[in-house]
Amino acid sequence: MRNLKTFIQDFGWPRIIIFFFLVGLFIMAPFVNVRLDASISDVLNRFGQNAIMVLAMVPMIQSGCGLNFGLALGLVSGLLGATLSLQFELHGMLGFLGAIALATPFSIIFGWLYAKLLNKVKGEEMTIAMYVGFSFIMFMCIMWLILPYSNPTMVWGYAGKGLRTTISVENYWLHILNDFLAIRIGQFFVFPTGLLLFVALFAFLMWLFLRTKTGTAMTAVGSNPDFARASGVDVDKMRTISIIISTFLGAVGIIVYEQSFGFIQLYTAPSPMVFPAVAAILIGGASINKASMVNVIVGTILFQGLLTMTPSVINSLLQTDMSEVIRIIVSNGMILYALTRKIKVSK
Amino acid sequence: MSAQKRLTTLFSRYAVVIIFVIITLVAIPPSGLSIKYIVQEIITRLGRNSFLVLALLLPIYAGMGLNFGMTLGAMAGQIGLIFAVNYGIANWQGLVFALLVGLPIAVLLGSIAGLVMNRAKGREMVTGYILAFFINGIYQFFVMYMLGSVIPMRNRAIVLSRGYGIRNTLNLESVRQSLDNIVMLRVAGYTIPLVTFIIIALLCVFVVWFKKTKLGQDMRAVGQDMAVAEAAGIPVEKTRIVAIIISTVLACAGQIIFLQNMGNLATYNAHDQTGFFAVAAILVGGASVTHASIVNVFVGVMLLHAMFVVSPLAGQNLFGSAMIGEYFRQFIGYGVIALSLVLYAWRTRRAASDARLGLHGPQNDSVKGNGGQP
What is A90-144 written as a DSSP string? Predict the structure, then answer.
C-alpha cells in the first residue's frame, strides 16, 4: 500500500487523471460508433510522427538546460533540409535521407550558436529560448519569401518566387517510413512498422548515448554543475553537446513528421509545434531536470492518444468540438504543473 | 580601460533603445509617411496602450520580472465588455460596468497567478507565460460553452447561431471610443483624447505614490532580496501576490481602454498578443527585468509603435511585399524581448563576477559593486 502511495506521488496526479481519461475514451469509443481499430492505428501513427520531437527534449533536460522551448531552431533546420531535398529533386528513400543529411549542417550550426547564447545566460534559459525561437521563426518567414528556391511545386505559382505555406511531398517521399514493411489488417488498421522502427532506432541510440562517458558526464552536469566541474567535466562543452543533439533531433523529428503528414508547413507553422513536444515529455513523467526514454514513449502515447481520441469520441458524445479547449488546458496545465513542482533532489 | 568599460556598460544597458531608434529612423523615409501622420498615430497609440504597459511596473518592483501573466487581466476585461454589450449599456457607463464585472474576476485570477508564481520562484516569467495559455483554455471554455447555455445571454445578436457561445468578433459600437470622445482636444491639427490621458496620468501618480507607501517599500525590499525581506518581517509571499493582483487588475482596466479605442473585440484571440506587446514596449523603452520606470513606459510605447506604423509600408516599398514588413515587425518584437533578456542575464552574471573580483581587494579602479566601499 505504501508502495502504491509513493508511486502515485512520484508519478503525479495529473498524469494518472490523464491516463484514466484516455482509457475511458477508449472504452467509450465503440458505444459512440468510433472504430477502435482505426483509432488505435491513428494513435500509433501519430505517436511515430511526434516521438522524435519529444525525444529532442531529453538531452537538454539531462544537461540541466531545462525544457527546450527553443526547439523551433531544430524544426527550422529540418524545414531547410526538407525544402532543399525537394529543390534538388531527390525522390524516395534517397530524398528522405537526403533531407536529413542536408538538415544536419544547419542544425549543428544553429545548435552551436544557440548553445553559445544559452551558456551565457545560465538560469534564464527557458524564457530566453522561447523568445529566441519565436524571433528566429519570424526571421525565417522573411527568408522563405526571399530565398532563391525555384522548384515549381514549392514556389507560389503567380509570383514565381517565395515559398508556398504548405508544400506537398506526395511525389517525393510521402509515407516513405510509414509504408516500409507496413502491416495492414482489415480495412482500417495499419501498423506503421518502418516509422516505429525508425523511432525505436533513435530512442535506442539516445539510450545508448546517455550510457557512454559523454552521456554520463552530461547527466552529471545537469544534476550538479558545481560537482561536475570539480570532477573535471567541462560544463559548457557538455551543455553545448546536449543543445546540438537536441536541435539535430528537432530537425529529424520534423522531417519524420512531414513524410507521414504529407506536407511541409513553412512560415509560422513551427511555433505551435514546440509546446506539444514539451507537454508530451512532461505528461510522460519527466521533470524539468530529469527525463528518460520511458517518459518519451509513455508521454507521446498519452498525449497523442488524447489528441486523437478527444475529437472523435467527445464530439460524437456531446455534438460539439471541445477538443481544442481540452488540448489547450491539458498541455499547458501539464507544463504549469511541472514548473511549479518542488524539484526532488535525490531519488 | 575604465572609460571603455563604462561605455560598454552604458551601451549594453541602452542597446535596445539605441538599436530601435536607428531602425525606426531608417525606416521612416522609405515608408513615405508624413511626420504629421506618424505623430498623430503615436498620440492615438499612446492613449490606447500606455495603461496596459504601466500594469507591468509593480511586479518588476517586486522582483518578479516581466509579468507575462497580465494576459489574465486582459481576459477579465474582455468578459466585462461582453457583459456590457449583452446588457446594452452604452457609452462610458458601459466601460464602468465592464470594469465592475471584470474587477472581481481580475482579483481572482491575479491571486491564482500569485499563488502559482510563489510555487515557481525564480521561474516567474516562463510560469506566467504558460499560465496565460492555461487560463486562455479556461477562458475559451467559459466564453464558447458557458455563456448562453449556463449563464443566460440577453442579447441574442452576440450569441453564435447554435444557441450558445459568443461570436468570433464582437462589435463594440455602443462603447466605441466613448472614453476618448468625452473631451477630444484639437491642438495644431492633432486630436488628443484628453480624458484617456488624464486617466493614464492619474495611474502614474498612483504608481509614484504607491512606491512611497509601506506596501510599496515592502515590495521593493522583496524585489531586492527575498531572504533579507523575510528576515526583516515582511510577509514575502503575500506581498508578491498583492503585486500580481494589482498588476492583473490594471491590465483588466487597460484592456478595456485598449478595446474601446479599437472598437471591436476579437472574442477568442484579442488577448493573445497583449502581454507580448506590453512587454516588448517596456523593454524597448529601456527597462530591464529588475528596473523600470514610468519614463521607460512612454518612451517604449512611442518607439515600438512608431516602428509598427512605419514597418509594413517600408517593407512594401523596399521589398515589394507588405508581408516582409509584417514579419519584420514581429521579428523585431520578439527579437527585442530576447535581446533584452539576454543582455540582462549577461549583465547580472558579469556583475556577479566583478563582485567576486572585488573580494580580492582593490586591484584597479574598475572595481564596482563590491558592497564594502565606505
Answer: --HHHHHHHHHHHHHHHHHHHHHHHHHHHHHTTT-HHHHHHHHHHHHHHHHHHHH
> A126, B136: Cβ pair inside 8 Å?
no
Q: How far lies A141's CA from each of A106, A164, B341, in Å?
A: 16, 11, 23
Give the whole-angstrom CA distance, residue B176 versus residue B171. 9
Q: Is B133 on the interface with A (CB under 8 A)?
A: yes
| Residue B169 DSSP code | E
Instruction: Show residues of chain A in contact with B319, CB under 8 Å.
Output: 146
- State what percent of residues in chain B have pLDDT above 90: 40
Residue closest to A286 by CA, chosen among A47, A62, A63, A126: A62
Which of B272, B327, B349 best tests the A interface by mutation, with the highest count of A CBs <10 A?
A: B327
Question: Nearest-CA residue of chain B relative to A67?
Answer: B126
* Cβ-contact A302, A15 below 8 angstroms: yes
Question: For residue B138, what is the nearest residue in chain A, using CA coordinates?
Answer: A329
Percent residues over pLDDT 70 in chain A: 95
CB pair distance less than 8 Å for B134 and A130: no
Concatenate the DSSP letters of all residues of A276-322 into one string. HHHHHHHHTT-BTTB--HHHHHHHHHHHHHHHHHIIIIIHHHHSS--
Burial of residue A320 (number of CB atoms within 10 Å: 0-12, 13-18, 19+) = middle
Instruction: Please tell me the distance from the alpha carbon of residue A71 to that of residue A50, in angstroms, as a whole number.
Output: 13
The answer to whether B308 faces chain A, any CB pair under 8 Å, is: no
Strands B264-266 and B169-171 come out as antiparallel
Q: Distance between CA A168 and CA B45 in Å, rounded?
A: 42
pLDDT single digits (tens) A232-277: 888 889 999 999 999 999 999 999 999 888 888 988 888 888 888 9
B157-176: pLDDT as tens digits: 888 888 888 888 888 888 88
- What is the pLDDT confidence band of residue A35, given thresholds at 50, 70 and 90? confident
* Model ipTM value: 0.82
Coil, helix or strand for B122? coil
For residue A42, what pLDDT band results from cuts at 50, 70 and 90?
Answer: confident
Identify which of B126, B140, B327 has the shortest CB distance to residue A138: B327
Grid coordinates belonging to B334: 520578439
**Residue B374, pLDDT score:** 36
Which of chain A's residues have a Cβ under 8 Å away from the Cβ of B130?
332, 335-336, 339
| Residue A329 DSSP SS3 | helix
Which residues of chain B neighbour A138 with C-beta distances below 8 Å?
327-328, 330-331, 334-335
* pLDDT at res. B371: 40
pLDDT tens digit sequence for B193-242 = 999 999 999 999 999 999 999 999 999 999 988 889 989 889 999 999 99
